[in-house]
């Protein structure tokens, strides 16, 4: 994007997609979104967007794609390698998933939970315990990190040898691609031997292939000891 007037117009369009309560355009209020918690990485952005639905994420990416405007998905911003922080050029819009934080379904019989990507990891653990199950992903950032960030980084955590990395704890995903199209693969099926397992491409790819908006995660029995 070259011309300032064009950028202003596109930013206005993005603001109207999310509505007045769901963006930050004042640089004074952006601090928490522009650097990591250790202050090893920092950047600048013209706009922080906080969509509340997959449709909004789709509309945002469609507009950004059509106008060649770069985006940075951001979860809890606890990553340690700067992947969630925009560049210093002020040319990347931050898309924070923090308002997509609903637990959509919990099925203790099938040992699954369907969540929005912005759910804080410790909230998912708590909800599982409420139905006598565990969600075994656990790491020191669990009070701040989001499941979308955990899956995008394929996080390990303290239970990794017993339960596997984050990508092994997922049955289904919903992802929005750069052109705004939504891949809905929110399956709860355990014996799924159909075709390619596309969802695995998005886990560990740090938002480079799409924005994770929902997931079906696996629950487990509470260990007796
Ligand atoms: C104290 C501490 C302990 C930690 N311990 C561990 C550990 O034991 N094991 C381990 O593996 N990691 C650990 N980490 C790092 C870990 O990767 C992150 O804490 C967590 O998984 C990232 O989640 P987040 O929501 O904060 O993501 P962010 O930091 O916000 O983002 C991380 C990356 O994912 C992308 N992203 C975020 N959300 C989405 C989305 N919805 N869709 C697509 N892309 C997205 C971002 O663009 C960025 O590239 C630790 C971090 C801290 C601070």
For the record, give the distance between the C-alpha atoms at the N and C termini, rounded to a whole number: 58 Å
CATH class of the largest domain: Alpha Beta
- Assess the beta-strand content as a share of residues: 15-25%
Shape: globular
What is the helical fraction, as a range of percent? 10-25%
Question: What profile does the largest beta sheet have?
Answer: 5 strands, antiparallel
SS content category: alpha+beta
Could you spell the SSE succession in H and E letters?
HEHEHEEEEHEHHEEHEE
How would you characterize the overall build of this protein?
The chain is of the alpha+beta class and 225 residues long. The chain folds into two domains: 4-96, Uridine Diphospho-n-acetylenolpyruvylglucosamine Reductase, domain 2, CATH 3.30.43.10; 103-221, Uridine Diphospho-n-acetylenolpyruvylglucosamine Reductase, domain 3, CATH 3.30.465.10. It is 25% helix and 21% strand. It has seven helices and eleven strands. The protein has helices at residues 4-18, 31-34, 54-66, 121-130, 147-152, 160-163, 199-202; strands at 23-24, 48-49, 70-74, 92-96, 103-107, 112-116, 133-134, 170-176, 182-185, 211-218, 220-221. The strands form three sheets. The chain has a five-stranded antiparallel sheet. A four-stranded mixed sheet has the order 1-2-4-3, with helices on one face. Strands 7-11 form a two-stranded antiparallel ribbon. A hairpin with a 5-residue loop joins strand 8 and strand 9. The longest helix has 15 residues, at 4-18. The radius of gyration is 18 Å and the shape is globular. The N and C termini lie far apart (58 Å). The relative contact order is 0.15. It binds flavin-adenine dinucleotide (FAD).
């Amino acid at each position: 994007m070259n011309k300032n007037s064009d950028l202003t117009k596109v930013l206005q369009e993005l603001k109207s997609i999310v509505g007045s309560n769901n963006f930050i355009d004042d640089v004074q209020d952006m601090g928490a979104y522009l650097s990591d918690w250790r202050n090893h990485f920092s950047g600048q952005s013209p706009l922080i967007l906080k969509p509340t639905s997959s449709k909004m994420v789709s509309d945002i990416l469609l507009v950004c794609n059509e106008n060649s405007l770069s985006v940075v998905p951001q979860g809890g911003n606890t990553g340690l390698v700067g992947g969630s922080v925009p560049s210093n050029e002020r040319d990347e819009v931050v898309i924070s998933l923090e308002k997509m934080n609903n637990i959509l379904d919990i099925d203790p019989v099938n040992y699954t939970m369907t969540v929005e990507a912005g759910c804080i990891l410790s909230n998912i653990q708590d909800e599982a315990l409420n139905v006598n199950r565990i969600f075994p992903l656990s790491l020191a950032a669990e009070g701040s990190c989001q499941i979308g960030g955990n899956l995008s980084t394929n996080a390990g955590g303290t239970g990794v040898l017993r339960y596997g990395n984050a990508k092994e704890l997922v049955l289904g995903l919903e992802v929005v691609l750069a052109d705004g199209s939504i891949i809905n693969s929110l399956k709860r099926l355990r014996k799924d031997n159909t075709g390619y397992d596309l969802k695995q491409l998005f886990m560990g790819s740090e938002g480079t292939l799409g924005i994770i908006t929902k997931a079906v995660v696996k629950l487990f029995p509470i260990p007796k000891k």
